[in-house]
Amino acid sequence: MGLSRRDLMKKAGIAAVGTGFAGLTLSMANRAIGAGDPQQIKIPELPWPYKKLDPVAVAEAAYEGYYKGACGYGVFESIIAPLQKAIGFPFTMMPLALFTVGQGGVADVASVCGCLNGAAHAIFLVTGGLDKKPRETSYAIIQDVFLWYEQTALPDYRPSKPKFEIIKTVSASNLCHVSVSKWCKASKFKSFSKERSERCAWLTAATAKHTAEILNTYADGAFKIAYPLSAAAEACRSCHDKGSKLENSRAVTDCGGCHFTPSMKQDHSKL
Amino acid sequence: MGLSRRDLMKKAGIAAVGTGFAGLTLSMANRAIGAGDPQQIKIPELPWPYKKLDPVAVAEAAYEGYYKGACGYGVFESIIAPLQKAIGFPFTMMPLALFTVGQGGVADVASVCGCLNGAAHAIFLVTGGLDKKPRETSYAIIQDVFLWYEQTALPDYRPSKPKFEIIKTVSASNLCHVSVSKWCKASKFKSFSKERSERCAWLTAATAKHTAEILNTYADGAFKIAYPLSAAAEACRSCHDKGSKLENSRAVTDCGGCHFTPSMKQDHSKL
């Protein structure tokens, strides 16, 4: 059996209005008939648009997110999920579960802290791009978050419904391994304990809150570097960085996070 | 003026076939009418489908990609762009430029090597997910790539049109900082030289090739751990890992990448 145009439109859930097809815009037709063909959709280039977020709401969501998908997911999801709600496409195209991989310093390897990896990806999504200018701008923001993380006594945000109380430590490193070990030493809790998990949930909330705050500041055109490299690290970099005498390394971090032993200092005293 | 059902279908660029609307699938209608409303499109959950790739083509693309968007982008793009071509949606929804942020150990901080960060995200996209089973499966693959990276003399792939010849080094670490410094020491090239960039371009190609190979193996149902933790690291972990006497750290890496000084060894000899 055939269907009339009226039946076709009725089936598509819309009323025939005005001058018929000419009054039925492409967008309306597609919405009415269905979701459209995703193969035809193009994803916009970076940066995607940002809308200022409530940092405390982000922190609370990140704390919850930690217990769903760990640290990297917790930070990324708490920033991007509200943008999915507020803006929709293209944020709705981002599979948030991907950033679970930041867990425990990438797939539990204990390399870069997952909070920072999640934050870096979220920041780059809304400020970065392949071109030099957005890339460098975004890196300046990300580096400021990394140095905030390693120089600040964390976690500096207490979730509204915590499972345990958590003490603060300064990591002096962006690495999961160092951050966790220092907190374990100070708190006397084990590295695979429920208390250590809770500490990382608080840290996820703290990093997400700081990330939302810095993105809000950037959205206001008021971003400035707040956490420069420490004087001690600058002293190291003066011999090891770009354009220096040795120029034999790359690093934007406190060096004492790894170069921590007396013999290392002694070697240097002979120079 | 109104339009007949025949006109409507003609306008949509398709012939009326069979039993009319019943023969016009939603997908056909949407494809015919246009791209659809992206706000209505839902992104599938992870893992996304994988199709086996040519590892050498991936390596060559990764080398080129390095000079466009650095290490993280180079690896991620060389794996995912061919899947965009072969499969289309949902891979076409992934903004490849996002993974530029892995550059130089995340935004030039020199933390986790960007090749590994890009590889981890690509692997998780096609093997991982929030649920425990895909998450653990994906982490096993990613950890194998991380340990391959730190235990292997790299770069072990020579691009077809290199700018310079590049020597191999073993990093014993997953960190950009360590990997670059060791290569600089062995090669005598500076850390911000064109030769070091070229080395990282080769490393991007090598890591992408290895990642494609391991994903192909996984697609064949034949993945097995090929790079277990070193005996030396296992000895360390026996006192510091989950369930051990101290249980005071997390790490799936060679420890000597950072704990490298004689005094550290001496402290341990007293235990």
List the helices and strands and how they pair.
The structure is a homodimer of 271-residue chains.
Chain A: H1 5-11, H2 26-33, H3 55-86, H4 114-127, H5 132-151, H6 176-187, H7 194-219, H8 231-240, H9 262-269
Distance between the termini of chain A: 92 Å
What characterizes the major β-sheet of chain A? none
Total DSSP helices of chain A: 9
The gyration radius over C-alpha positions of chain A equals 24 Å
Helical fraction of chain A equals: 40-55%
Give an account of the 3D structure.
The structure is a homodimer of 271-residue chains. Chain A contains nine helices and no strands. Chain A is mainly α and 271 residues long. The radius of gyration of chain A is 24 Å and the shape is globular. Chains A and B meet through α1, α2, α3, α4 and α5 of A and α1, α2, α3, α4 and α5 of B.
What's the short story on this structure?
The structure is a homodimer of 271-residue chains. With 271 residues, the first copy, chain A, is mainly alpha-helical.
State the main characteristics:
globular; disordered N terminus; mainly alpha; homodimer; 271 residues
